[in-house]
Amino acid sequence: MTIAYVGLGSNLDAPAAQIERALAALARLPVTSLVASSRLYQSPPWGLREQPDFVNAVAQLDTALPASDLMRHLLETERAAGRDRSGPRWGPRVLDLDLLLYADLTASDSALHLPHPRMHERAFVLLPLAELAPALDIPGRGPISRLIGQLDTGDCRVIEYR
């Protein structure tokens, strides 16, 4: 079994509920267990600014799926939730699932980039990830605590849901 971390985000159609449904879907993946999930964070959009705020979280999985199969399942889960990838990059979305880390695997091809190439720049990824793995060392980037210290995290706030 391999530890993998998945970033979850939504800013359409009841975003917090979308994240909760996605976590339930992750728990149902074959040969995979949902070990833990972070609290929910609200943050302003990244990239394209004229859209609603996002709700984000991170899930820790224990999986026997190869990284490419896990990524395929994440894309299928997005599609099942109504994700439409024809819009602008960094635009509004019902559900966004990013494979952030898969053990210490590094990969870069047309379908899979590990670790996620921009995670170290995003407080809305690092803050919930640090909840689950505060001593994590991100391959090629360093300790998560140092990476968080280099970011402005003031726009990310924990929200209550449930």
Describe what you observe in this structure:
This protein is an alpha+beta fold. It has one domain (2-159): 7,8-Dihydro-6-hydroxymethylpterin-pyrophosphokinase HPPK (Alpha-Beta Plaits, 2-Layer Sandwich). 27% of the residues lie in helices and 29% in strands. The chain contains four helices and ten strands, in the order βαβββαβββαββαβ. The chain has helices at residues 15-27, 67-81, 123-132, 144-149, and strands at 2-10, 32-37, 40-43, 54-63, 96-102, 107-108, 113-114, 137-138, 142-143, 157-159. The strands form three sheets. Strands 1, 2, 3, 4, 5 and 10 form a six-stranded antiparallel sheet that branches. The termini are far apart. 36% of the residues are buried. The mean pLDDT is 93.
- What's the helical proportion of residues? 25-40%
Inertia-based shape: globular
The tally of domains stands at 1
Average per-residue pLDDT, rounded, comes to: 93
Give the low-pLDDT segments. Answer: none
Measured between the Cα atoms of the first and last residue, the distance is 30 Å
